[in-house]
Give the backbone structure.
Amino acid sequence: MAGILLKPGDEIDVVVTSAKPFGFFVESESGVHGLVRGGSAAVGATVRVRVVEFDVAQSRFSATLID
């Protein structure tokens, strides 16, 4: 995962790894994990999201679902 940098506004395809009442956890093609707040999606589904924030130190991101 070294060298993978995302920035706010990036739109990426991710796979849903876990669904929770507050949103769902996802993983990008490059293996970076993230949290999408709100919305719903089935585990295993591929969805498109917009990056809101990227934590370089933790190599993880938060995002919103693109309709």
Q: What stands out?
A: The domain at 11-65 is CATH 2.40.50.140 (OB fold (Dihydrolipoamide Acetyltransferase, E2P)).
